[in-house]
Amino acid sequence: MTGNVGGGTWWLSRHTAHLQAAKDFISWVATSDEYQVALSPGYPAFSAAATKWIKKQQDSGYYAGDIAAPITAAAGQVWSGWGSPEFSAEAVWAKTVIPGQTAGKTIESLLPDWQTAIEQQAQVSGYQVTK
């Protein structure tokens, strides 16, 4: 089994002045062979591209055996309980920890503040936080 934490999540702000171009870009990076097969270093989530990506890896000669079966099997066993939240954990870190570090505090001393801030952000975003 594997977690759904590889690759990247593409976010789009509705505030962009170029909404259609942004949509087109996200569609391209998420589904096109030009990106998913030729350029992507990791296994694509888009199944049509994934088959071609595996073939490209296999044809490279890097792997001694057939990698298609285990990778394809693992793709069907992605655990949905581990993934990206609906909010930016990085933004909460930047708002909470970075200013403290700049002021000379240690990361360890700032972790309780970060925990509180990220729990609050999770609750605001609709998550149920349990301890």
Keywords, separated by commas or semicolons:
about 130 residues; mainly alpha; 2 strands; about 55% helix
Brief summary of the model shown:
The chain has helices at 19-31, 33-36, 47-59, 68-75, 89-102, 107-124; strands at 2-3, 78-79. By secondary structure, it is mainly α.
How does this structure look, described?
The protein has 131 residues and is mostly helical. It folds into 2 domains: 2-79, no CATH class; 89-124, no CATH class. 53% of the residues lie in helices and 3% in strands. It has 6 helices and 2 strands; from the N terminus they run βααααβαα. It has helices spanning 19-31, 33-36, 47-59, 68-75, 89-102, 107-124; strands at 2-3, 78-79. Strands 1-2 form a two-stranded parallel sheet. α5 (89-102) packs antiparallel against α6. The longest helix has 18 residues, at 107-124. The two termini are 26 Å apart. This is Extracellular solute-binding protein. It comes from Nonomuraea guangzhouensis.
Secondary structure layout:
Blueprint: E1 2-3, H1 19-31, H2 33-36, H3 47-59, H4 68-75, E2 78-79, H5 89-102, H6 107-124
Parallel strand pairs: 1-2
Protein name: Extracellular solute-binding protein
Gap from first CA to last CA? 26 Å
Q: Given the structure, what is the number of helices?
A: 6
Q: What percent strand?
A: under 5%
H and E order: EHHHHEHH
Q: Report the sheet with the most strands, covering strand number, pairing sense and barrel closure.
A: 2 strands, parallel
Structural class: mainly alpha
Number of strands: 2
The general outline is extended
What is the CA-atom radius of gyration, in angstroms?
20 Å
> What is the percent of helical residues?
40-55%
* Strand order in space, largest sheet: 1-2
Low-pLDDT stretches = none
Mean pLDDT: 87
Q: In total, how many domains does the architecture comprise?
A: 2
